[in-house]
Amino acid sequence: MYKLEVHKHEKLVVAEYASSVTMAEVIEVTQKMITHPDYNPSLDGVSDYRNGNILFSVQEITAFADEASKNKIAAGRWCMLVSRPQETALLAIFKEHVKAQHPIELFCTLKAASEYLGKDLSKYLPLD
């Protein structure tokens, strides 16, 4: 399950995942994002995995990250919210593969992610 929002005036993309998160679902969210009429690569974004259970492999995340970098899907500042070691490890691999393309960081708290993006994410996502 996921929720995707593009806030054009806030210059922000919000993707929130819940329950089981497969690579097919992440690809679906990405496709919906890049085809959204208000999306452009310069927008900042947050992907919230705190209520999700990531079910993809190192190979899948590496291939996805390489494809995302090659296609220059994003250029703005992005962050990923995580709450468990598995998500942190897998998404750290993603971060390493895309960091040359655009700034991206991992956070455990909404406050830290909000400070990084300079936006109040509590308007869009549940508190910690």
Describe the structure.
Helix content is 38%, strand content 27%. The chain has a single domain (2-123), classed as 2-Layer Sandwich (Transcription Regulator spoIIAA). By secondary structure, it is of the alpha/beta class. Strands 1-2-3-4-5 form a five-stranded mixed sheet, sandwiched between helices.
Can you list the strand order of the major beta sheet?
A: 1-2-3-4-5
In round numbers, the mean pLDDT is: 95
Architecture per CATH nomenclature, i.e. the level-2 architecture: 2-Layer Sandwich
Largest sheet: 5 strands, mixed
Reading the helices and strands in chain order gives: EEHEHEHEH
Task: Summarize the model shown.
This is STAS/SEC14 domain-containing protein. 38% of the residues lie in helices and 27% in strands.
List keywords for this structure.
128 residues, 27% strand, alpha/beta, Transcription Regulator spoIIAA
Topology, please?
Elements: E1 2-7, E2 12-21, H1 23-35, E3 44-54, H2 58-70, E4 78-81, H3 85-98, E5 104-107, H4 110-117
Parallel strand pairs: 2-3, 3-4, 4-5
Antiparallel strand pairs: 1-2
